[in-house]
Amino acid sequence: MKKLIMIAMIGVVLTGCSTEASRMNACESKGVSRDACYIAEQNRQATINAAAEKQAMENAQSVYSSNDTNSSHHHKHDKY
Fold it and tell me: Is residue 54 a part of any domain in this protein?
């Protein structure tokens, strides 16, 4: 019985850190076709990548904007 409880606890801990294969298996075990599970997984990954890219662009824009407005390094062109 203790072994069963221990396995259940490990399963709960690892739920947040699932692999693509485990998500695919879980999807298929619900009776969903492999093709539909694959498309859902691809959409999941694309959504994560898009969110990461959007955040990276916002971070880069923030750094660029703060450097541009706070910069005291401006070249003055003297006319001779």
Answer: yes
24 is a domain residue: yes
Distances (CA, A) of 20 to 6, 39, 43, 75: 24, 12, 12, 53
Q: Which residue has the tokens 């490990």?
A: 10
Question: Domain tally for the chain?
Answer: 1
Q: Tell me the mean pLDDT in the region 1-13.
A: 55
Enclosing domain of residue 54: 20-62
Q: Dump pLDDT digits (tens) for 9-53.
A: 555 555 557 899 999 999 999 999 999 999 999 999 999 999 999
Contact 38, 24 (CB under 8 A): yes
Of 31, 13, 29, residue with least CA distance to 21? 29
The answer to the question of residue 7 being in a domain is no
* Token pair 């824009």 in the structure block, residue: 61
Greatest alpha-carbon pair distance for the chain in Å reads: 91
